[in-house]
Amino acid sequence: MKVVPEQQLRVKDQRVRHVRRPRPELLDTPLGMDLVELAERILGPEAVGTDVVVAALKDTVQSRMQAISRTVSECRRRDVQFRPLKPSAPAALAQAVETELARANAALAYDQREVLGLAEMFRLCYRDIAGVMRTEPAYISTLLAQARLDLAGHLHAGAEDTTPECAERHRALDLLARRQDAEPVSEADQAWILAHMTACPSCAGAHAQMLEASLRYRAWSRP
Ligand SMILES: [Zn+2]
Question: d(Cα 38, Cα 219) in Å, to the nearest integer?
């Protein structure tokens, strides 16, 4: 008879219990499903138990914003290392695209994963994102612009960036992010960015990458 080490037995038992455990009803709501996905995008699919979200939803069932805030705080409290995704067998195109996005997202810094989830999945305005992240609203455009560019960079790893440096890049990227997210932009800034974009291939290229990153992140579907 083959002897199974006790450790293995325990792992197997836990798995069975996990599968059979009834799923709390709160998770089967649209908000519950979105929050589970947000937590997975911030912490990594293998690090998230649905308990992160159940606790948040139980305490904040009346308020979507509070539930989002609680979920994000709970993710931060866990402070886990985003583990690299396991290599998978050759997959169908849709699955391959999804895996590519998941890998690029996993390569981002923690606050970048957080801000992308809040902006692209939940479409929160900058003021609300800043509230959830406990930072200044003025910082959000910079953070989002860089997160999108870095996501695009990880999606196009290996491609060489040959565009010249631009002295106005910081101002331009902030304004481009604000326009992309329908945040208010003054008339003077609006005129400036439109003129700058026709004259600056570097910022025009960055703009295209930010738009592409945003579209692809949004299309990254729930499994
Ligand atoms: Zn520029």
Answer: 14
Do residues 56 and 33 lie in contact, with contact meaning Cβ atoms separated by under 8 Å? no
Cα–Cα distance for residue pair 129/51, rounded to 1 Å: 23
Assign residue 177 a region: left if phi > 0, alpha if psi is -120 to 50, beta otherwise? alpha
- Is the CB of residue 120 less than 8 Å from the CB of residue 218? yes
Distance CA 195, CA 213 (A): 24
Measure CA of the first residue to CA of the last residue in the chain; give whole Å: 40
CA 198 – ligand 1 centroid, Å: 9
**Please, are residues 175 and 182 in contact by the beta-carbon 8 Å criterion?**
no
Q: What is the pLDDT of residues 78-87, one digit of tens each?
A: 866 666 555 5
CA-wise closest residue to 171 among 195, 152, 153, 150: 195
What SS3 state is found at 80?
A: coil
pLDDT tens string 11-24:
444 444 444 455 67
- CA 147–ligand 1 middle distance (angstroms): 18
110/107 Cα distance (integer angstroms): 9
Q: What's the CA-to-centroid distance between 89 and ligand 1, angstroms?
A: 42
